[in-house]
Every structure is written in C-alpha cells, then in structure tokens.
Amino acid sequence: MAKGNRKVPEINSSSTADIAFIILIFFLITTSMDTDRGLARRLPEPPDPNAPEQENIIRDRNLLRVYLNSFDQLMVGNEIMDVKELRKKAKEFIANPYNDEKLPEKKPKDVRFFGNTMVTEGHVISLQNDRMTSYQAYMAVQNELVAAYNELRNEIAQQKFQKDYLELDEDQQKAVRDIYPQKISEAEPKNYGGK
Asked: How far is CA 93 from CA 2, 99, 176, in A?
C-alpha cells in the first residue's frame, strides 16, 4: 500500500455567514423583551404665564407625611408602622369616611354621574425617603399608596356602575378620579443619617 498525500475534502462554508445571520434574525424576532414601565405619574399642567401667582398653602390636616429612612423603616404622620398597614391608613386619609376633623376636610363638588358629592379634594400625600433607602422598600411604599387609590376607585365604581374602575369608559373614569384624585407629592431624598 502506498501512502500518498491525500487531501481532505473541504467543507463549503460560503453560506455559513448567511445561516448565522438568519438564525440571529429568527431569535431577535421570536424573543420577547421585558420593558421597564416606570411609575405611573401624571405631571401637573404647566402654569398659565398670564395667571396671577397663588400661594399653595396646605392645611396640616390635609397633609399625610410618609417618611422612609435608611433602615427601610416607615413613619406615617407621627407613628412608625409596617408597610402592610400603609394602604389602610392611606385609604382612611384619602376618603375620610367619617368626616374626622383630624383628616382632610371634605367639600361639596358637582361630579358628573354622581351629582353633588363630598370629596377630600385638598388632600396630599407627601412621600420623602432617605438617600440610602433600598429600592425594594421605596417601591413597596409606592405600590401601597397607588393600591390605596385603586381600591377606593374600584369601590366607588362598583357602588355606582357595578364595574371595576378599569372597565369604565373614559367619562366614568374621569368622574371617579374627580372624587379620588391621586395626589402623591415626592420630596427630594435627603441624608438623615444611618447606614
């Protein structure tokens, strides 16, 4: 047997780049990406330059102060509480169901579909946190505050329309928002000390 120089047949690789490109396109199209949605906040309307300046003075009873420190401890008003209790406290503050003099004042307002209704239109929830507050604690507080508004809106939508708030048409949702306007004010984070 003669040993000769045999050549190994070459593999045609001219279409390899095309195949890799097609596979890449396939995975890009079929893969879903999670997108961050951020916090649902509606910015206030820009002030009218022709309007006279007004001082916005909020009476103490209309303001619920929520503080979150660097140890993720929550203080609502003057009491320390667990995040799980915040929703109930916020709902009581926003609605003031028994017209308590220590909670936001109720004023009559003509609301479409509801007629003349007593609302706590002047209430504000002021949220302030420490710069070292954990993101998880911050988001938990945000979620509880938004959930308080959502539950109140659902309750009144069920009473009036026998539907959840999100199932209402745009005019009905606006009417419900007129009764429970979402007013969460966030102050700039500060360093209170700690960690």
From this structure: 98, 10, 17
